[in-house]
Amino acid sequence: RKELKAFPEGFLWSASTSAYQVEGAWNEDGRGPIAIDLKEDMPEGTSDFKDGVDHYHRFKEDIALMAEMGFRAYRFSIAWSRIIPDGDGDINQAAIDHYHEVIDELRKHNIEPIVTMFHFDTPAALEAKGGWAQRETADAFVRFSEILFKEYGEKVNYWLTINEQNMMILHGPTIGVFPADTTEQQLNQYNHNMFVAQAKTMAMLHEMHPQAKIGPAPNIAYVYPASSKPEDVIAADNYNAVRNWLYLDLAVRGEYNSLAWSIMEEKGTTPEIADGDMEILKSAKPDFIAFNYYNTATVADAPFGGGASERSEAADQQISEGEEGIYKAVSNPNLGMTEFGWEIDPVGMRMTYRAIWDRYHLPLIVTENGLGAFDKLTDDGRVHDDYRIDYLRQHLEQTQEAISDGVDVLGYSPWSAIDLISTHQGIAKRYGFIYVDRDEFDLKTLDRYRKDSFFWYQELIKTNKLPA
Ligand code: BG6
């Protein structure tokens, strides 16, 4: 291609965080615990989430740094267990006020809030009553959403329902979002209950605030067949169905992906569907699709008796291992890896954009993409994270390719605005533009420092094009 199209005017340059990973203040001002706070088996040497990076107290300082970078938007999540400490009971006014302050602070700096309503943080009290297995939890989520829309609906134009529902269902027991012994049948029921809750929430926002927009936020990964062998291509199709399209077909079209459904049927793990559910699912229409992209997946045919995975243990944990008769995960020899064993595939991001666009024709917002690395604060008070700049540049080049291919992309919100606690690898795995001075178990000063990527992103936003 000779010339790429420019990033559109008004492109939402942003970055992301989630409440339980960034806020800290886990038991302050009435916040109720979430299931992950109470997890007793954090991987060895890894911080828990209780202190985060103290964004709860320092949000004004953090938002000022985001404004200095030029952010047009900031994606964050509102903690359900702050607003309703036990998930379905009394409303905590202190929390309502807190998020008004956060949103007002953003607006003061002309930063558009992009609010995630649920980012892995089921209130512990609901979890104790059976969590997402219960329809009551879905109802409690819908009530929580209604409170958010009433309070903030006039000030927030972009809403995300559930972050990475697919990763929760595929990996929730591993990352501590759900109990380790949750069965597949139970997970499929959680999944269904979440879909119903999401659909009700989308329809409700449209009714209450027609100007506002809402969409799902799954993690989508293009799936390659390991070879041109037809059986490998079938395996890729299978994995695409259960990992990607099951989620978007339900959110956008309100129907179960027939291949994913037939795989569940064969395993005898289909969820129970109550009367009226399918009508509810059909009634909701998202305005855009938000998706998180870190890497692609490569899979091969998995005949019975042949084992389910050929990936090394270090391989990306966002890719499921596979299942005999359906697909098996393999490594892609054409790709490099991060220090944490995640494959890096910028061109795969272009394909992911195309695949989603082709299938649904809805505008897209990238709500996560980024590089987890062992950053080092140097004596000059900087982090020389040229590796992160390279990573982001390559993914943004491919974003521009996708835009030039004809895909409608509204914004880019990488992970993460500021360092925070990773899902299961502590603070050592950093993603931010802003470095936070703390270690795994020593909170140190919690001071903020601008990384080299901070200045690079600032330049990019200012000129609306990739720095030379
Ligand atoms: C996504 C999540 O899965 O990836 C984030 O939405 C998470 O919450 C991010 O932090 C990076 O994953 P990890 O495991 O490196 O923290």
Automatic annotation (TrEMBL):
> In the UniProt record, does the keyword Hydrolase occur?
yes
InterPro entries per the UniProt record, alphabetical: GH, GH_1_N_CS, Glyco_hydro_1, Glyco_hydro_1_AS
Keywords of this entry: Glycosidase, Hydrolase
Molecular-function annotations in GO: beta-glucosidase activity
Q: Does the keyword Membrane feature in the UniProt annotation?
A: no
Q: Which PROSITE patterns match?
A: GLYCOSYL_HYDROL_F1_1, GLYCOSYL_HYDROL_F1_2
Enumerate the Gene Ontology biological process terms. carbohydrate catabolic process
Can you cite an annotated GO cellular component? Answer: cytosol
**Catalytic residues in the record:** E368 (nucleophile)
- Family statement: Belongs to the glycosyl hydrolase 1 family.
Q: Which PANTHER family match?
A: ARYL-PHOSPHO-BETA-D-GLUCOSIDASE BGLC (PTHR10353:SF136), GLYCOSYL HYDROLASE (PTHR10353)
Q: Per its record, how is this protein called by name?
A: Glycoside hydrolase family 1 protein
What is the organism of origin for this protein?
Answer: Rothia terrae
